[in-house]
User: Fold these one by one.
Assistant:
Number 1:
Amino acid sequence: MNESTTVPEAEVSAFRASGSVEEKIEKARLELLDLSTRNRLLHTPRAGRAKTIEVVNELAEAMFKTLVVEGKRFTFAAGRLDSGEIAAEEVEEQAAPVDPSDAEFVDQPEVELDAHGRVLAHWDSQLSTRMTSSGLQKRLVDLFIDAKTVEEEQGVNILYLAIGYLRWRAPKTPDQDRFAPLVLVPVRLERSNAGEKFHLKWSGEDVQTNLSLQLHMKREFAMKLPSIGEVENFDISRYLSEIKELVSERPSWGVEKEDAVLGLFSFAKFMMYRDLEASEWAAVGGFQGLPSIRGVVADGFPTATLTSDEATIDDLISPAQTLHVVDCDSSQSLVVFDVQKGHSILVQGPPGTGKSQTITNIIAAAIADQKKVLFVAEKMAALEVVWRRLDHIGLGVACLELHSHKANKRTLLQELRNTWQLGAPKFQDGQATITQLTQARDELNAHAVRLHQVLEPSGLAPFDVYGHLVRLRREGHTTSQVKLDQPTHWPPHEKQAREQLILDLAQRIRVMGLPSQHPWNGVGITDLTPNDRERLIQAVSVQSGALSLWRRRADSFLTELDLPAANLFSDMEHGIQRAQILIAAPAIGKDALTASIWEERGSVDSIIEQLKDSQRLRSQSLELSKPEALEADWTQTKAVLERLSPQFTLNSELATLASLHPLIERVLPDATRLAQLLGEAEPLTLDSAMHVGAIGERASSVPPIEREALIAHIWDRGVDTIEELIDAVEHVQRAKQDLAPVFREPAWSKDWETARGHLATLGTSWLRIFNGNWRRANREVRSQLANPKLPAPEMLSSLDELIAAQAAQRRIVERDAQGNEAFGVQWERERSKPAFMRGVVAWMRALRPLGTGVREKLAGVADRQLATELAGRIRPILEDIRLRLTPISEALVAAEQRPWGEETVLRRVPLTVIKDQTNEFAKAYSQAELLQRRNTLSVESALVDLGLIQQTQQALLALKDQERNADAAFGPLWRGADTDLTLVHAATVWMHENSRLRQLAARLEEPVRALADGKRVEEEARGLTRELHALFAGLKFTANELVSTQPREAKLSALSTLMSRWEGDAEGLPQWVAYQQRAMQGTERGLADLVDHMAIGEVSPDQALGAFDLAYYEALLAAMTKRDAALGRFDGEQQTQTVAHFGQLDRDRMQFARHQVLATHHSRIPKRGGATGPTGLLLGEMEKKRGQLAIRQLMTRCAPAIQALKPVFMMSPLSVAQFLPPGALDFDVLVIDEASQVQPVDALGAIARCKQLVIVGDERQLPPTRFFAKVVGEAEEKEDSEETQAADVESVLGLCRARGLPERMLRWHYRSRHQSLIAVSNSEFYQNRLLIVPSPYTEQAGLGLRFHHVPDGVYDRGNTKTNLVEAKVVAQAMIRHAIEHPQLSLGVAAFSTSQRRAIFDELEILRRQHPETEGFFTAHPSEPWFVKSLENIQGDERDVIMISVGYGRDAQRHMTMNFGPLGKDGGERRLNVLISRAKSRCEVFSSITDEDIDLERTRAKGTVAFKLFLHYARTGRLVIAKEAEDQQAQRVFEEEVAAALRARGYELHTQVGIAGLFVDIAVSDPKRPGRYVLGIDCDGTWYRDAKSARDRERLREAALRDKGWSIYRLWIGDWFQRPKAELDKLIFAIDKAVEHNEGEQLVSGTSTRPVPVEVSSVERDEFAEIGLINAEEDADSTPYEEAAFKVPSRQYELHLVPPNIMAEIVQDIVVVEGPIHRAEVVARARDLWGLGRAGSRIQAAVDAGIVLALRNKAVEQAHHDFLSVPGQVPAVRDRSEVASPTLRRPDYLPPQEIDAAIVEIVGSNLGATVGELVLRVSRQLGYRSTSAQLRAVIEDRVENVVKAGQAKENNGLISPI
């Protein structure tokens, strides 16, 4: 669900508008800076609703020393009693002006001094205030809550005690004093329980100067305020005096030294503003030179790619590459993999999907890759949860937390020291683990593939086949009885067709009996019409009677001749030849027999051929269409279809076109009528009709104003001006109402600006009574007051309101003409009705999308109600027509068809044309109903079918033309196209063969008449046999146990019996024919063996389908086993052991990964050095007891050392700007958590410091809001209004997503211990894409979602905007929770800040009444209890979450559909966050139910989702997508196991879960309702679809067990081989689980992570003590060794040594001393000969040796005059003890050696300045002092080292590459 976030105009213009990178950043940066007096740091409000506490009668020095220097705590003292305790006369006295002559006024109070002579009240532990006790407590609670919330949400403490105030005046308001704080002491409010007073304590952070004031003074007044130095040496009195002196020359300016205010002050935006100063980034090439900044701000990420989501993890990542230090599911693994590959990525992390888990692995992998990581999150909790995860596994030592209270320099230095002192981690080599893990993983993956590898074309895998065989075994089918023909070649649909065929045969056999015993057995005809049946049965009856008669006559004749009775027809062969021919003549009638056509042989044959063709075509046509189709005229339909695209289908596009015709007919009259009403004369097109409808819809809502006002031109240009005018009217009316009790009516006509200025100038100062202006103004104002004794603050506030209302009155008068023009007579100036006018404005705005002239049209409508009704009827119909017709029209136009004539654009087609065309399509579609396959036919196929039908029609017409000749030839046999082709063919044959007998047969009615009785009988026998033969042929008789296929060869008795059986079972013939048809189909489809077994009864009808399935699946299993023999060798016990071994190896690999990461981190920690550079400076700071550098300075000067010790920085966006100077540190990877809540401008500083981005968040959760601006800005003065909510702004996540940063979503949901807690979010916001771990508990067990209806709750809509009844119920529930479930963490979320505060107030009271609960309220340090609003709950999770809706019916029981921010844009995102915070239980408290929410009154997405959530909470019902059919098909095995368990009496459910992750079978606990005792996982669909072996074999089960499941893994291979044994094992496991759970509590006491977090301990070497090395001590370098060996000094004088020998001596010298200067080689040779000096001859001789050595490549020369042995690595040597004086000459120092020293020092110290390098290198070379020449040589080499790329320079620091 991708939803765009509403972005304010400023944000859009900053980041998405045009402009360079620098311009965009500068624009966004300027929005951070607020130097107006709204900024509390420039002017601190002390009255009204400002959440501040003014401290009075205290000394600045005393407060500062007590808090900061002495570290003591303060409490607060109320300044006056509550109003109920003050007498009425005291109130009056306080309200009246003070008379200076009053004696009590001038009396001095008694002052008590301490032992030091100081006023005791100034140096005690209490801070005095002006507030009442209750007001003070309320304000302290406000500050406590807000400060704590901001620190949790943004990682910064903004609670300060501001001491000393600058009184100043702005140039624009020179008469108004402003008060800006000067010294800001960071403090915390503390208390141990609700019954204790609040204590104020210094937080330990640096005392701040007012940075915003400094900048403002510098910009506006060119005044530089002093800064605050070290706290230990800070003198606050002197500091304030300096500022006082600085402003002394400015009139009316001053310093209020003793003024102090406790309040919330934020430097966050200012520090970010300063951090984004372009000049600060110039050293790194500016923002344009930072690719990450360019990508986010301007260029985007067009080339960024990620690994495919469908990638198989184990194919992608080997165990050797897997550096996961905590459990990592497949979706997380892909994220970590992509980050390791260097890809920038956006990680969408829905609630509870393990974002912190993923970040932990990302950070660990980065450490292992020697990368530096900046982890940023605004919420302190987000940073801490990752740190805790890393610390639990020993990686916390690599992380530096710089946020909130942890940003303390002493804490920082101690943390760095602790890390530096860590010994090296000890661990064993894990390569064997990796090898074994790889082997186990591959083995498990191979089994999963093997078990679910589909055998094509069957579409089935072994798992499916096993399941079906298990089912068949349960049904009693054990051994296959039949064989099938190539069953492995059948696709699923063919197999299903065979199953249907078998079921049909079985049913027929049940009805007809065994086929082998059927009377008609042997008859082979497969086609039989009712007429054929009647004809054949009649023929049987006739022939049966004829046979009986003939036998009687024959027997009589033979008896008369004393011959035995006839047994065979052949017994009558004597003299029957001619009789047989006559008797066999066809029964076609005398006329046919004598017809002359028989003399034309070709004519009769053509009739027969025509009959064959007609019957063939008709048969084909009837397969494609209904019989009526042959009578229909298809010409027009065919023409219509030819106009359509061949790819169209009748039941889709043609059906759509047909269905549109009635819609067009229905809408056209109404549209025409509406057009007439609106004055539209043009013919209606689809587009114009919709436009007319849109206008008509607004007819009934035309505001009741005059026509001239309705069509006034001001509405075209001045809607915003009119709205301002309405605002002014509302302002005046509201002020009139509010000020009526305060001012008299004449007051409205006076100008009060001057008086107000005089009164405000002196405020409440007691000197005001001496000011004449003040007294006159006071009298003048009070003279107009209804109550002259009104207290001054209230009078001043009311006067301000009056002045503002007078200004509004003036605006109304100035714009009177505009009001008249816009509203006509409804305009009554300030007495006008604002609600009515706003309605008019809203209506006018709604007309803008409809174009111009709309108001004029609507003004002219006579019957507006009719117009609205017509529009309401036609709009949905027209929209439906457009949506359905558009794709078809576009497809036809694209195919170059012209469905609408010449017009190709649908919206411009007249409705009448559409009507006519769709009418033709409707007729064509209607006629197409005669086609059998209309629902699937394409237009192309339909045209082919119509062609066949038309061909058949032509053939039938041709046959009809032959009717006369055919009737003459065949007589009664001829029935047109229905003629029996067999009979007429037989008749034709007889007529052709016996043409000479046609006349005789026609004349002779009884052929035996003229013959003797014997001849007549003989003749009858011949005719009878012919008839019987014809009958057998017609029946396709193939013999049976009685009669063969030849009647002449049959015994007459058997033939009589057969005829009797046929005659007695006339109805059995159709039954037999139908059976024969299906049996033949079965034989053709490879079922011959099964059909034969069924025919003889060896396979009963009830067993037929099972026998078929058994044979089929056994054949498939045999083929699968042949494909992979390992399938048949599966052993469940071994598989279980492999799974367990894999799980242990995977955990071992994870432990080894932790050790790998630790080892990499430790290898980067500086091991040597420490006396110089960043390392030395850092060690020096560690040694200091006080006066350490500030954190920002440490980062500037010690960055390399700090990042080596702590490669991972954990910070908030503010702390990045506060502590990391631009360009001083860079990072390889930036991880931003909860990025949806981080504004882009806040994240820019972090992005600029990093190369790779990992943006983690969730676009469906809270965006950044301006919620916290209310805490420190002007917005805090406003009430928490339903209508006035902080607007959402763009997030860095949304910006990166818009820039094309590739994204990936985390899928596994771990948080919720019951699926109901995430069900609504998953369904509504994540399209059921999350894998949700189901719970073994039901709601009866106390988990999941609960609904508490508070029916008597009342929402105080117009006043406090709270529901106090509901708040009290929630507070009571919190106390009950603290008593009953103290082990479970708790959070409370309210829909509004007002309701949140009401709950807190009620809880305060209850906590004091129940002190026994205080233990709970101080427990759970990692997850403390909270009461928050939905605006700031993101990122929090607790075991139990209580939700207070608050909104409901008011005191009048009226219910609005306004639910605060939930009903605004993005409200659904707030709801998503709110309802997904609970881990174990979520309790919803509401005065309303879902039934109270009327969606007809609101369509806000948040409200719709809220209604669904309430419904689910109340009823537990939620519609969730059904399981896919292919998955249901794979549940056969699970259902069989479930059936076996049910048969044993167990209650269970299958597929328990709601999304992604299901337990196959869950067995209910028979003794304890509310939970499942055992979950059974089979190796089915989930096993196949797992993305990795870890997901499949370990994480899934671990996640289930973490939720409380007991899991039993059931292998289908074992169950198939040993079903009884496996069932017994399973039952034993169930019984054992029941027994184990008897003593267990239903709900776990504490919640855990998805896979339990393992706390690792790391074994290390002993700690290494660290300390400074004295720079003056001898450096750690090798003493210089001077060459000393034997030379041929007695054989040769030095200058006479041969060159070859001299070359060897040179080589030997260089081997010992290289690199060495050539002159030093000469000196060394001289020393070896014992000479004091070397002349030119010696020089020449040595030079000759050097040249020869160089030529022989025995030595090599570099840097002009320095010699070394090839491959010689230069070592740094100490020359302090050398004998040769020239060795210490700077110009004789080898450059290679100096370079080596520089690189070594820079590397070991992680950097050094040039001066430090000069000192350290000179000391390592053995110099005690550094001459100018030596310094120059070393500085020159430093420059060369940098140029050579061996080191880099940054801000004067030489650091390693």
Number 2:
Amino acid sequence: MGFAPTPSQQEAIATVDRHLAVTAGAGSGKTRVLVERYLNLIDHEVPIEKIAAITFTKKAAQEMRDRLRLARPDLTEELERAQISTIHSLCQRIIQEHPLQAAIDPRFRIGEEWETQALLLQIIEAEVEGREPPEELSDRARTVDLVWDLYREMLTKGEKDFGQGRTPAGDMEPGFLVAPLCHEVEQFLLVQPSTAVQKAAMEGLQEEWPSIQELLYFPDPDLQLEALQVLEDFIKRIRGKLAEHTVLIRELIAEGRETIQAQKGAEIIAWLTEVLQGVHHNYNQAKRDLGILDYNDLEQLAHELLQKPEVRAQYGFAHLMVDEFQDTNPIQKQIVDLLVAEGALLFVVGDPKQSIYRFRGADVGVFIQTKAEIDQEGKNVFLAENFRSRPELIEFANHFFPQVAVDEAMAFEASKASREPAGRPCVTLLRTPAEGLNLEEGRTKEAEQIALKVRQLVEAGQCNYEDVALLFRTMTNVRIYERALQVAGIPYVNLSGRGFYAQQEIRDVIHYFSWLGDPEDQVSRLAVLRSPFYLISDQGLYWLQAGQPEKLTVTERKSLAQAGEDYAYLSQLVKYEAAPRVITAMLERTNYLQNTWQLPFGPQKVANIEKLLEQSWQLYAQDLVSVPEQLRYIHLMSRDSKGEGEALLDAEHADVVRLLTIHGSKGLEFPVVFLPDTSGSLTRAQRGPVLYHPEFGLTYQGTQAYEALKEAERQAEYHESQRLLYVAVTRAEEELYWCGLDDLARARESWWKWLQDALPELPDHLYREVVGDLPSLDGSSSYEQGIQLAIPSYEPLLPQYNQVAFSVTSLMSYELCPRHYYLRYILQVPELSLAPTQANGFGNKSSLNALQRGNIVHRVVEQIRDPEELGDLLDYAALMEGVELDGTQRFQLEKIILPYLQSEFFGRVQGAQGQWEIYQEREFVLPVGNFLVNGLVDQVFVSSTGLEVVDFKSNWIRLEQVEAVGLSYAVQLRLYAWAMAREFGLPVLKSQAYFLIPNAVYQLDAQLLDPNLTERWIKQTCQEIIAGVELGLEAFPPKGDCATCAQRTNCGNYPSFGENTDDHLAWVEEELV
């Protein structure tokens, strides 16, 4: 098999006659087991098309495919067709193969996250704005936030009806507890007090009781709650034996408060339910109108399709292998179960101790349930050997985790060491003294000690910077640790989310936006003046605040004057210009990018600003145009703890320290791991007037259901924190530095506390303790001094590029018009919309425009297999365009399509010529040197002697225009021919564009079919683009006869052939997103 498996690995590889569940501990070589099992199935003559392998990430799928190719190069062609993908890619395949049954546009695409989130925000704001809210939800902005949080939480947890048909918790008759309570109070007032204190309390209650009673019966929940609070305050003053008479009163007060709160919440929950249902309906409709799906849609639609026996029968796999099964959610398990129902033998591999994706809807109980099901008629195997870590690290984990494992998922099974011992403790407890400090101050001090320790290790030659990783539970406080690394001069890269909107350079732009929106916002104004926009010092800001600007330096006075001019200009611009143009003007009028580039980690900061500008253009294209609209979106995104990551540079592959979340480190390993910030609380308090949980539904604050939900969430988060810690500790190969704060002013339940509690039971030889008392760089406490922004004098780093991706469409655009490429792909400037406006709504009887006609024809050609289907497919395709065909339109469309049905291409599709194997909508992503090229080919015909590539074109052109228009697609056809030659390992005989409307073919010149010549052209062109990006606009000149441009308002060039610009639209639909 190419390697010597352990007995348990061999059992997992060779057991192919029954269901099998494999529990794979950290570093146990499960990826190798998956590959070897796949190869073993092939050796047992199981056809590749009968094997399905599902991985957790696309990267893992590609790695598995590469390993299989390396092991069996003779199967390269067959492996290209193998079902090795993520669960979402499999779902996408099922939907693409059954668009009619799914009632979805067959050319759907997966929406970008920013795109779907921006769309959702618009819909939520419209839905909230269109309804009169209860008084408690009168703040529109906060209500939008609440609906945003609830909807995303409900989607993640698999909610389908969004409260429809549910009775709000606590839907009770008003005031049913008032009478019993009043009766008990009146009976109590008849009791004789035995002390002067009791007598005073009784007299006070006696005096206030009529007013309290009146409020209790008043039909206002807030007044009733106030009355209960006043009553409770009096009752609490009753002590001694007399307090025994108040027990029932106390219980009735608690029940009354619960009932009133529930009744109050019922109205709010009912309103929110209507809003959420409206959001869900409109969001789904908007996505369908745009032809996009998100990952939740993929799961739901695939699940619905697989419940149809005729669909499920088409996926009769003999073996189904699923990796990382501990991070599966319930609907994904249902999809797997439906596939297994067709007779597949199930093989799942995972580790419940590493189930850490609850925030994505993953449920560790799914793996535990599946193991139990398999145990009844299959087999369970445990891979105990750890090939990653030193034995000392493994022994530490084996002793420590049984002491903290309290839930079913953490039923700890010890790992076995495979590597040679280091002969010394490999776990270091870095104790930072924090007596008298609060947690924030302690973190700052700890961050400094970590930075100094990292530098000490590198300077001593014990490791390189690239060997070190800092793993965080969350990135909330990562800026403290980044700042310490900067002060110590340590190069680093932040690879995880929750960094982008918190980065100082992004905050600078947001502060400028806020100042433009509110001239009285002094906090934002001072932040802008202090930033690289104007570089006014802290002392200068002091004199400004003191009203003595004349005391600023000469340079600062010039900067202040420039700030005034810039503000006057930009505050007018923001009133009528789109946000990305305001950002562009802001950067052009100031020296922000130049100043920022020269700062430590300047290239990263500039890349982040460029990413912000790109994102702003994307939001502009999604109709979030103005600065206030985009600020609203940024506000919501910045609240997402698993949100946007920084722009990535090649620094992640350089000699730099890596900062990432433990979630982001899953599946990775590092020689030296630092585990910082372990003294913070393990759980976060659930907040908000309304919370959601699948078991409780929507619950309102102050009710028992609300408190029970909070406790259930706290327990779930607590248990997952155990698993998260296990993942963190097991990432280390050589050394683990566990960092914590000693003598913290406020002790709390934390990972550091777990460790301290466990230390008495841990053998001393497993760890060593180091006090974090290394001296500050300048002999003082730099964490107390802060960092003054200044411009150092060293040379900036040159940007580097590695694995840059180019689509076929983009390369074709560059060849035809470099200026168009620059505007669309570099600046991300939205293009003129050529889509119909649909002003008349559905059922518009006006004549079809070129885009609608082309789309309908294209959809029919993609789907049709029998001429008898033509009528139904035309109706379906028209429905996808939102039009209803009249007799004339139907006749015209049939006239266009009928010649295709008599063509050689359709004959092959029908199987009339059996020597051809046909692939439709063939996607590819192929490397060329340091670049990647991706695309999507409509049809590939494969024979034993070679390939023919066919791409359908829906342009409305005349027969005499075919040669000219076809020539504009030469680059596309050439790249498709190159890609398919690489994919299938066969020569390309023809690469052709079939223009449906004139029913004519343009065939690429045979000299351009040579894949080696094409590959050289790709490298040269990509390098030329990269070089041009550094030079800017002038490196991308317009071509006078550009036939591709939908950027004419930005460039001034116009298409010069064809009735319209459908050729541009064709490129859009062919591009692989």
